[in-house]
Amino acid sequence: MSGKKNKKSSKLSKKNKPVSIQKGGFFSTKNISLLLFFFGCLLYANTIGHDYAQDDAIVIYDNMFTQKGISGIPGILGHDTFYGFFKEEGKANLVSGGRYRPFTPMMFAVEISLFGANPWIGHFINMLVYGMLGVLVYRCLLLLNPKNKKSTAFAAVAALLYIAHPLHTEVVANIKGRDEIMAMLGSVYALYATIKWHDSQDKKWLFKGLIAFFIALMSKENAITFLAVIPLALVYFRSQNFMSSIGKTLPLLGVSVLFIAIRTSILGMDFGGSPNELMNNPFLKWNNGTWVDFTFGERMSTIAFTLGKYLELLIFPYKLSHDYYPRAIEIMSFSDWRVMLSVLLYIAIIGAAWMSRKKSKLISFGLFYYLITLSIVSNIIFPIGTNMSERFLFMPSLGFAIVISALFNQYFSKRNTLIGVTALVVLLYSIRTVTRNTVWKDDYTLFTSDVSSSTRSAKLLNAAGGALSNAAAPLQDGNEKSRMLNEAVDHLKKAITIHPTYRNAYLILGNSYFYQKRYNEAIASYEQCLKISPGYQEVMKNYPIVLREAGKNAGQNERDYTKALNLLNKAYQMKPDDFETCRLLGITYGIRGQHLKAIEFFEKALQLNPSAAVVYASLGTAYLNLGDKDNANINFNKAKQLDPNALNHLKK
């Protein structure tokens, strides 16, 4: 009896022993790596059929350099990343500090040369490099502490949690987000290669690390935070003293100096400022008809709140949004309990990171890693142009995964328990990730979905209004078109309430009113837009059309020919080469009995479109009304030559 019991106990003990590094078997490094790669790919497989969305226009389909394919690469390397989209000097610098991230636009240019402008290839490559990142994270974490029996379990759990986290959807499901993936991939590989160089003294790892880090920096500037992460890893996991670890990092510092020199030669010395525009500076408030800066207390408390929001999203990634522009984050104060809670939590994180540095190096390292990589996007070091963004957690979230994995391995020492708890969390994360991916199908789906959860972002309200307005424009008049336009107008009015000088919102509001045939309100919106931004090109392009149609409506439906002439003449002044405006002016002057003016504008219309039979007929009528039968017949004959039915309306 006793022997059987011991035998059973032995089986249970063997079954529940900690997972350790194995060269073979199911839990081999190779098998886990393959599992992580395919898992990362599978999570985002449902994005392959998606269209372009969000900022893809800036770096892909509306970027003049990227669209040239490989031949556009010199232009990509020689300009601000946004220049190819704005196509004007100065506009690219609207974003605080400018952007020099040429590596992924070069990738997109190569893809366009090989496959054309097809979004599926962009989504497919994002999926592949994300799977590769998952493998690299696992291998790197495994390398940090290879002698620990639980290192395989720790590294695998951390990599799974990182890959599955729903916050990453903004990066992976959006093709433009590849800059985040490549920056992370290059940075983690630089850490991996530096550790390998330290362990083997083989300089090939040094060169590999330098190349990877340069790619990371050329993908996105936040890779520079690894200049602090890498020496920290050497101190924690290779028992290096501080000065020795700094020495190992000096080659990477040299690469960083090279990148900064290149960046400065292209963009100048601007590393971030405070533009007087709410969409590029969230720390502004509307006061007595003008924009003023937040007080120091308002600024710091708002930043503190966003840092707390990041923790909330890491732990409970359910209510997600691609947009946190003002006022998705309201103006905060230190009297708000949420701000103080955030401050206390970060004090606790710093304290825990310091206190656990000897007893639990993985937890301490994970916490410090999170703080270091978050610092550059926190708005504390320099302004980043927005309050916060889920994509800003793409790099710091690895610290969260490291800490949670270390805690799981510490408190769930039995293999089955560890696997069960990890599987449950990863399953919940995966479900949220896959369902969140569907929102990134296209701009319309993204904007109209997220506006329901982020109801105070002026930028998102404007984007949703624009998406609805553009989608409604080609529809036949009816209930669906009316519903969409009413919803668009509602969103745009809210955006303007939040941001009273939002010129783009006034533009789209004017467009929406135009589609509703609310011409007076459309004109008022355009006038307000021009008051904010005189000569705004998009308004100057649309405004003459609205004035023309308003004039046509005033004449045909309201029978107010004085109003019609005022509107049509204003349209003509703005766009004298518009055929329809000239034709309508001719008709309106004719109705008013001003036949010479009618002839003048009919002739201008014919200069613009010499084959317009209907205008020859109208011109003939104008001459006939003046008693000039000869010219009337000449034009009537031309009308019949162009269209035998052109004079049918006269016979009636």
Overview of this structure, please?
- The protein is mostly helical and 652 residues long.
- It has a domain at 30-436.
- Helix content is 66%, strand content 1%.
- It has a two-stranded antiparallel ribbon.
- Helix 8 packs parallel to helix 18, helix 12 packs antiparallel against helix 13 and helix 12 (226-237) packs antiparallel against helix 16 (361-375).
- The N and C termini lie far apart (115 Å).
- The model is unreliable at 1-22 (pLDDT under 50).
Mean pLDDT: 92
**Number of H/I helices:** 30
Reported for the largest beta sheet, the result is: 2 strands, antiparallel
Counting DSSP E segments of at least 2 residues, the number of strands comes to 2
End-to-end distance: 115 Å
Choose one word for the global shape.
elongated
Q: Quickly give the structural class.
A: mainly alpha
Low-confidence stretches: 1-22
The helix fraction, in percent, is 55-70%
Cα-atom radius of gyration: 32 Å
Taking strands numbered 1, 2, ... along the chain, how are they ordered across the largest sheet?
1-2
